[in-house]
Amino acid sequence: xxxxxxxxxxxxxxxxxxxxxxxxxxxxxxxxxxxxxxxxxxxxxxxxxxxxxxxxxxxxxxxxxxxxxxxxxxxxxxxxxxxxxxxxxxxxxxxxxxxxxxxxxxxxxxxxxxxxxxxxxxxxxxxxxxxxxxxxxxxxxxxxxxxxxxxxxxxxxxxxxxxxxxxxxxxxxxxxxxxxxxxxxxxxxxxxxxxxxxxxxxxxxxxxxxxxxxxxxxxxxxxxxxxxxxxxxxxxxxxxxxxxxxxxxxxxxxxxxxxxxxxxxxxxxxxxxxxxxxxxxxxxx
Length: 285
Description:
Blueprint: H1 2-20, E1 21-25, E2 27-28, E3 34-39, E4 42-47, E5 50-51, E6 71-74, E7 80-81, E8 94-96, E9 103-104, E10 126-127, E11 140-142, E12 149-150, E13 163-166, E14 172-173, E15 186-189, E16 211-214, H2 219-223, E17 232-235, H3 239-246, E18 251-255, E19 261-262, E20 270-275, E21 280-284
Parallel strand pairs: 4-6, 6-8, 7-9, 9-10, 10-12, 11-13, 12-14, 13-15, 15-16, 16-17
Antiparallel strand pairs: 1-3, 2-5, 3-4, 18-19, 18-20, 20-21
């Protein structure tokens, strides 16, 4: 009887371990080049090279686990995030991206409604269509220097998005990329030459209520450019740098005083906030 009980407990332990930790090969063209591991709410992507694209959200191997995923960590060496990879991970609050990342695929973070901030690496060159669409908690986004293309509806209806930073390297912004971003009040634009855009890029929002900071000597060009001319355009020798420093840094993670990472900001107590610029501060509520 005792042996049977021990055997039963062992089987239950193995089953519990299998339920909490799962692994998939997701590289392309070689599946084993990139591996995904899910454990206790965190999805870790590691390896070297390209992550495979998926034809829909239902074809992603962790599809049934999406409501439980609160953190995604993509390791150094991974160069792309596949289409629909984290689509509708509604509990996702923490995303870590590597300096090797060059592209984010279509709908990769679409409808991650709890995601308030994400730091994009300087290696990034393109953001796919609908990549961050309906991320209603996202408050600001900085497109790093080197980013060339923003896909259609990439940040569509990110209703809390108040500020965006556009790099000098940007060559195209596709239709409705920032459409229906009702809260947008500040654009820091490092590009001295206006990129030709469709009216829908900033459609369905009050453009005249949004201030756009541009490099010295470029205001005239923006005032004559379609769509851009609708914004409140401001230039000065240091306006772009000054405003950028005034913007609050993006929150990366929350921690207890003992260093335990939290899935969301506590409503009370003492905890640590870590920011994207490397700084941290203690909060007492």
